[in-house]
Amino acid sequence: MTPADPILSIDHVSKEFDVSAPWLNRVLERKPKLYVKAVNDVSLTIPRGSCFSIVGESGCGKSTVARLVTGLYSTSAGEIRFGPGTGGRPVRVQMIFQDPQSSLNPRWRVGDIIAEPIREMKLRASEEETRERVDDLLRIVGLASDDVAKFPHEFSGGQRQRISIARALASEPELLVCDEPTSALDVSVQAQILNLMRRLQKELGLTYLFISHDLSVVRHMSDRIAVMYLGRIVEMAPAEDLFTAPQHPYSRLLLGTIPDIHAPNRNRELQGGEPPSPLNPPTGCTFHPRCALADERCRREEPQLRDRGDATVSCHAVAEGRARTPEEKET
Amino acid sequence: MMLHSPTVLEAAESAADPSPAPALEVSNLTVEFPTRRGVLTAIDDVSLRVEPGEILGVVGESGAGKSITGLAVLGLLEAPGRIAGGEIHVSGRRVDTLTEEELTKVRGREMGAIFQDPLTALNPLFSVGAQLVETIRLHTDLSREAARDRALHLLREVGIPAPEERLRQYPHQFSGGMRQRVVIALALAAEPELIIADEPTTALDVSIQAQITTLLRRLCKDHRTGIMLVTHDMGVIAETADRVVVMYAGRMVEMGRVEDVIHNAQHPYTKGLMSAIPSLHDRVDTLTQIDGSMPRLNSRPSGCAFNPRCPMAGPRCRRDRPNLVDAGPNRAACFLHEGGTQ
């Protein structure tokens, strides 16, 4: 399923990290070299103007994908391609990080933080125009123009995240990679930032690659969602479909365990198991030790992503029809 | 306070003791931090109660004072913080006036604690078994062998597979979820009447978080331990607690049964908070947002601390401070329920 106008396509991308012991230990203790496959054969395409989200638990490789896309890491295998940008120039990509406390330089004034990309990329001819642009950006993200002379510590967490968004917008990007942009914020402030991001997407025609572990935030923001487990995409589906009819057993586990204030599940059964170590992933389908539907084939053979309607799922049980969605069971 | 959940009432009736003392009773607690620029009041006039076998959720955003409340109960306030007023009773015994030495005996035996990060709560240099045995022997007069058996029993109870093997292992050999189970086992070691759980699931992934909250609920009902569950996550409260206290800027703004507070919030702050959480069931274009952010400790507005962010605020809100009054099924500190905001 390739959209007509992808702004980004990731093609069979893998990323390995060398986590071997130091050379001397390896020689003396006869330890082999050790690699972690943080991202394993991931393919996805993001249509222009949409919001694509990646969800998963810690260590599933979702942040690594974000860093691969922005070029902070280089790929071990596979290809990342950007579509043509507006006016024939390359697509501009910017990133928003989780913690605005550590992603803003505490010794710089807000005006300089936001102006840096403009000055660096020579987007405005004069200092006068740069200042005007910074002023505009501050207004767009809901800050006051006299905030330029302040330092980051003078702001609350939510306002700091607004500063990072203004800085990201300074270089007029078309694709924004947002790595857990609201995870460090309180709910009432989170709503402010999410509303701001939705408004900016509409007004500026942005495309988002949104990384989060919070499924309710992801549902609010996304058009299409990929669920990752141990470096692989296990299910990719339109947001609505994933939440109403999750297909992969792991997606169902995730959706079944998130606390929901409107329909709390107070007397649930204990869901067993924890994600295994990525250093030594299980054979076959990496989810099989936690999966109720696992059989001999799941333990032996790695499942591949297969199209099922609008979704793609990587599960033998789903492909063989052994996994029925709860709705199907009812009928 | 007649706001017990039905399960607690039933349990209380079936108990042998006709009127057990509440596991925790805090009345009019005030905590201050004297600084060079004046005294900052972190907790202002907080009163709450946890019955045996009940989970009381304390929820609020960062800076609301929920963790400080927990620390004050445990007697772990860091200097210069001090209790400036009010009383704290744990199972009928007053603890805020105890000396450090007396407190050390109460802590662990009568009240246990579970903190956010299990790695810092465990000593990396001792095996899990040694830490459990030490805690058990400190609070009971069991022999080393009996304490070891009890440690095994505790690990089994908190759902750690192969406990004999696990006793000999060190904290770094456990995963995050398993470490938190060990911390819970430690908190249970002396069968305390009260457990203060401060963000016990925040550092964990959702699927593990569900395991831990289920475990807490089960232990609370099985041992009739009162749990004060401090968290910022309304979802965890919804699934775990019986009653909930909502805090804002050091004061209680609303208190009631969990269902009532979530579905029938009476305070404008609680209402805003509930609708600011994105729903899992339907998608809205814009989330309800509360503008602004919580005031800092040194710049709290006069009157109701929420008034600058409140859509319903009137002149009275800027002048006077509201106290908790009956508001529908709950209790709320808002003039809307006390004759208007004019």
Outline the secondary-structure elements:
The complex is a heterodimer of chains A (331) and B (342).
Chain A: E1 6-18, H1 23-29, E2 35-47, E3 51-55, H2 62-69, E4 77-82, E5 93-96, H3 100-103, H4 110-120, H5 127-140, H6 157-170, E6 175-179, H7 187-204, E7 207-212, H8 215-221, E8 224-229, E9 232-238, H9 239-244, H10 249-257, H11 296-300, E10 306-308, E11 311-313, H12 316-320, H13 326-330
Parallel strand pairs in A: 3-7, 3-8, 5-6, 6-7
Antiparallel strand pairs in A: 1-2, 1-4, 8-9, 9-11, 10-11
Chain B: H1 6-14, E1 24-35, E2 38-50, E3 55-59, H2 66-74, E4 82-90, E5 93-94, H3 100-106, E6 111-114, H4 118-121, H5 128-139, H6 144-157, H7 163-167, H8 176-188, E7 194-198, H9 206-223, E8 226-231, H10 234-240, E9 243-248, E10 251-257, H11 258-263, H12 268-276, H13 315-319, E11 325-327, E12 330-332
Parallel strand pairs in B: 3-8, 3-9, 6-7, 7-8
Antiparallel strand pairs in B: 1-2, 1-4, 4-5, 9-10, 10-12, 11-12
Helix pairs in contact in B: 5-6, 6-8, 8-9
Family (chain A): Belongs to the ABC transporter superfamily.
GO molecular function (chain A): ATP binding; ATP hydrolysis activity
Organism (chain A): Aquicoccus porphyridii
What can you see in these coordinates?
The complex is a heterodimer of chains A (331) and B (342). Chain A has 331 residues and is α/β, with parallel strands linked by helices. Chain A has helices spanning 23-29, 62-69, 100-103, 110-120, 127-140, 157-170, 187-204, 215-221, 239-244, 249-257, 296-300, 316-320, 326-330, and strands spanning 6-18, 35-47, 51-55, 77-82, 93-96, 175-179, 207-212, 224-229, 232-238, 306-308, 311-313. Chain A has one domain (6-92, 173-265, 275-330): P-loop containing nucleotide triphosphate hydrolases (Rossmann fold), CATH 3.40.50. Chain A is built from 13 helices and eleven strands. In chain A, strand 6, helix 7 (187-204) and strand 7 form a beta-alpha-beta unit. In chain A, helix 4 crosses helix 5, helix 5 packs across helix 6 (157-170) and helix 6 (157-170) runs parallel beside helix 7 (187-204). The longest helix of chain A is centred in the middle third of the chain and has 18 residues, at 187-204. The mean pLDDT of chain A is 88. Chain B has 342 residues and is α/β, with parallel strands linked by helices. Chain B folds into two domains: 50-74 and 99-248, P-loop containing nucleotide triphosphate hydrolases (Rossmann fold); 254-342, no CATH class. In chain B, a hairpin with a 2-residue loop joins strand 11 and strand 12 (330-332). In chain B, the strands form two sheets. Chain B has an eight-stranded mixed sheet with strand order 6-7-8-3-9-10-12-11, sandwiched between helices. Chain B has a four-stranded antiparallel sheet with strand order 2-1-4-5, covered by helices on one side. Chain B has helices at residues 6-14, 66-74, 100-106, 118-121, 128-139, 144-157, 163-167, 176-188, 206-223, 234-240, 258-263, 268-276, 315-319; strands at residues 24-35, 38-50, 55-59, 82-90, 93-94, 111-114, 194-198, 226-231, 243-248, 251-257, 325-327, 330-332. At the A-B interface, helix 6, helix 7, helix 8, helix 9 and helix 10 of A face helix 9, helix 10 and helix 12 of B. Chain A: One of its GO terms (cellular component) is plasma membrane. Chain A: Belongs to the ABC transporter superfamily. Chain A: Pfam families: ABC_tran (PF00005), oligo_HPY (PF08352).
